[in-house]
Amino acid sequence: MNTFNADKVFSHFQFEGELVSITPTGNGHINDTFLVTTNAPKNYILQRINHHIFKSPETLMENIEAVCAHLQQKVLAEGGDIEREVLTLIPTHAHTSYFLDNEGYYWRAYVFITDAISYDIVPNNTVFYNAAYKFGEFQRFLLDFDASKLYETIPYFHHTKNRFNNFLHALENDCVRRAKTIPAEIDFVLSHEQDASSLIELYESGKLPLRVTHNDTKINNIMIDAYTQKGICVIDLDTVMPGLVAYDFGDCIRTGATSGAEDEVDLSKVHFMLDRFEAFTEGFLSSVGAHLTNDEIASLLIGAKIITFECGIRFLTDYLEGDTYFKIHRPNHNLDRARTQFKLVQDMEHHWQELETIIQKFMK
């Protein structure tokens, strides 16, 4: 994206120092992100919020303000550095957390976290353990935050039953006539229909409490200290909403405990990594496990399977609908993505007893 608009937006925020440069940064697919360099000691992140995905940027920012304020209190109480361990919003000169430009785009700014790394692929078990500990801490710090006070920034985001129904609708319409080419993938989804309701049924039966959840806990949504490899700060809070702890545990397992890329064509390279699962489970439960119910802890493994299955459904649904949601870079890209997710689900099912043993090993 051209930085012209970002340059014009700079003057509306309470940045320290004079502008030196604004350059695109990151590889996110939703928002436009820029690194702002000034002649002051601090640098900043400036983002243009994608209001096509997030229909109500105002309520999204209300969520982020409230959650960050709560996290800052917790970090301060434990003697931490709030500008390093919590996203720090930079207010506008109008004392708001966002700026609405003349073209209808919403902008926000954060303090840039120095000496930190964001990984797209988990490099080793140590980093995965440390990321898990920080994600667990994120949950622990927000246990006393009333989740019902948060807005749903994307309704039904992790409602797997709804995702399954969307798949059925796409299959019935078959608008680009692709269904006949993927009978195995369709059969896989249909054979797991009962799984699609498993977490929802546990919640509706009262066994799982509603928590504040991040809902997009990919490994690149946590900053890792460049020197110590410790987790520093959970970032990208756009999808912070009411949810289940199993969502956050499951999504990071989905993206971090795999031997292959999300769009790997050769499925022989895609395996569920038990050692990664164990490292993450240990880190997560050592941080927050003592504060979760036994039913919540038991649901974590279900979350790993269901969130992976859900993501596969979403890729396959988009493939059936003509690739209208996820960006693709080659023919069958979404189909390849769906196949990797289903392969991971199969691996989890094959190792289910071993995975249950790992969970039990780290229960308090």
Automatic annotation (TrEMBL):
It comes from the Bacteria. SUPFAM superfamilies: Protein kinase-like (PK-like). Residues 22-263 form the Aminoglycoside phosphotransferase domain. This is Aminoglycoside phosphotransferase family protein. InterPro entries: Aminoglycoside_PTrfase, Kinase-like_dom_sf, Pseudomonas-type_ThrB. Gene3D superfamilies: 3.90.1200.10.
